[in-house]
Predict the structure of Dihydroorotase.
Amino acid sequence: MTAYLITYVSILDEDPTDLLLADGVIAAIGADAATAAEDLQEVETIDGTGLIALPGLVDLHTHLREPGREDTETVETGTRAAAMGGYTAVHAMANTTPVQDTAGVVEQVYHLGQEAGWADVFPVGAVSVGLKGEKLAELGAMAASEARVRVFSDDGMCVHDPVLMRRALEYVKSFDGCIAQHAQDPRLTEGSQMNEGVVSAELGLAGWPSVAEEAIVARDILLTEHVGSRLHICHLSTAGSVRLVRDAKARGLDVTAEATPHHILLTDETARSYDPVFKVNPPLRTQDDVDAVREGLADGTIDIVGTDHAPHAKEDKDCEWAAGAFGMIGLETALSVVQQAMVDTGKFTWQDVARTMSYTPAAIGRLDNQGLPIEVGNPANVCLYDPKATRVIEPSEQVSRSENTPYAGLELPGRVIATFLRGNATVLDGALVQR
Ligand SMILES: NC(=O)N[C@@H](CC(=O)O)C(=O)O
Ligand SMILES: [Zn+2]
Ligand SMILES: [Zn+2]
């Protein structure tokens, strides 16, 4: 196995140093690295000048679409996109066809990830059978399976029935699982097309009000407090939700929250284009919401950045707004968007990036071999990033099988130069490693 000596690279915010990846682990850091490399058979040296070494990123919220919609993404293509974005692990959401609601399906997805070898895939289990919100799925069997599921979600659908939600929260306690909620009151969002506000009124599109998210966030905080369980809020998007989570944390509850890259960069003004590439659930909100979500990330109220990478076919996006599917891809642009919205604005250090995009998502997923700091002896899951580079986003250049990126034509900062999964390069020189 080739070893990699990365010279003069900054580990997060630290002064430049040398880093040696060998035998799947971080073998040496600092003056020892070059010396240790001399004893190795096959060593490739990478000039790390100007680059930042980040722990391999971990996504808690990816849609890989396999099984069922392999025309839009597969485990293989989605994890290639993940590697290009600096990720070494993704959690694969349960809204596949068939739904990931049995031990059999989650094991299948888990093994597809292992075979592909681009990033570790940790399947999320459905909360309810068929995402129907009626009957609890086989949570225990999924937890006990080879996929070791710890995160359960009906994402795409809200677990709306409070009795079902209460039971799910109770059930996962026995194996330290958590329920990741897609917070959307279905009655308050019937027919909704975009954020409810000034822009929706002007465009004449049916609104998706903030309260439809906040009502579920508030209810679930109360339910999890009552049960003494672990709740995760997916793709939080409103200023009011940030307030609710801040209050829950102040009261010591085990509630975590996630923000997507698109909810910290884009607003409902994008809907004026009538281009459904900007149609997503929850919808892009107002600048005040964007500011509040950024603030929530900066002060730790929002624990993580999750991509909600949601590939869709051309025919489901090249259409009028009302007919368009909800969702946008994001694995290959997440780090750049976080740099632009959080680092370049002075709200985040690179340590904060590592915390929200690697350490904490892995901790919420109860992963033990991902999301670890770059320290000698830890698995060599590393991303090398050039924060000074810039690139204009071109949909056809995305490695994902789908092209529904909302950043087409936009110049974003930064570029992933290399990604290593347990010491194996998945990306080098900014391109996928050919196999
Ligand atoms: N975010 C979206 O708009 N769509 C997601 C589902 C979801 O995350 O709710 C999808 O699966 O396409
Ligand atoms: Zn969702
Ligand atoms: Zn999702």
About this structure: DSSP finds eleven helices and 19 strands in the chain. The mean pLDDT is 98. The domain at 3-53+382-390+409-432 is CATH 2.30.40.10 (Urease, subunit C; domain 1). The pocket of zinc ion (ligand 3) is lined by residues 61, 63, 93, 155, 308, 310 (CB under 6 Å).
